[in-house]
Amino acid sequence: EEQDKKRSKIIDNVYEKIATKLQNSYKELYSYSDRVKNINDLVDMISNENQENLHIAITGDLGVGKIEFAQKIGEALFNAGKIEEEKPIVDRLANFTYHRVAAEDGQERRYYYSVEYRKNDEKCLYILTDIDEFINDYKVHMEEHSLGSYNETKRKQFKYTIELLTNMFYNNYFIIVGNEKDVKDFLELSTKINYKVNCFIILCVKKE
């Protein structure tokens, strides 16, 4: 019985520490309330136990702290038990589903390009940047219907990226980061994104 009491006390202490960390994360997010208009909606979604994915677009001018704010969201998601790794995966949107494999063939180096049809890791946070690069590539390879295996691979990559970012059944969390124009252009890039634009919470970070 004494051992049971000790175990119960240890468990209570653990839960108390977790709750404290989570509350501190929410305080960190609320510290942006004068710079981010709809911060309450964000905290409500993070705290909702039934919310198993999140699609966010963070806009703002250069140097206002968009990546820092995205990382604060990641800390809150981790402390809420929504994601398994505290450190988010930060990458350029153009790299999100793409990889390049180099192979040696005698003295000649050839590069083989292929779409990385990886199974998205469950309960991960992806912070995706440089969306203007993705938009420009998309227009070149999708709208001009360029020929060649490389261009076909790029088209597959774009379709797969959009599928991942608009599919609400994945237990994953996405934050795309850019200025207001780039985010607007991205969300209007295809009918699929435009149709599901409401799946993205738009958070605008302003200067202090």
The average pLDDT value, as a whole number, equals 76
Number of strands: 7
Largest sheet: 5 strands, parallel
- What integer value in Å does the Rg equal? 20 Å
Name the shape in a single word.
Answer: globular
Strand order of the largest sheet: 2-5-6-1-7
* Approximate helicity band: 40-55%
Number of helices: 7
Topology as a string of helices (H) and strands (E): HHEHEEEEHHEHHE
Which class of secondary structure composition applies to the elements?
alpha/beta
Question: Could you characterize what this model shows?
Answer:
The chain is α/β, with parallel strands linked by helices. It contains seven helices and seven strands, in the order ααβαββββααβααβ. The protein has helices spanning 2-30, 39-47, 66-79, 131-143, 149-166, 180-187, 191-195; strands at 54-59, 89-92, 98-105, 108-115, 125-129, 173-178, 200-204. The strands form two sheets. Strands 2-5-6-1-7 form a five-stranded parallel β-sheet, with helices on both faces. Strands 3-4 form a two-stranded antiparallel sheet. Strand 3 (98-105) and strand 4 form a beta hairpin. Helix 1 packs antiparallel against helix 3 and helix 4 packs parallel to helix 6. The longest helix is centred in the first third of the chain and has 29 residues, at 2-30. The protein is globular.
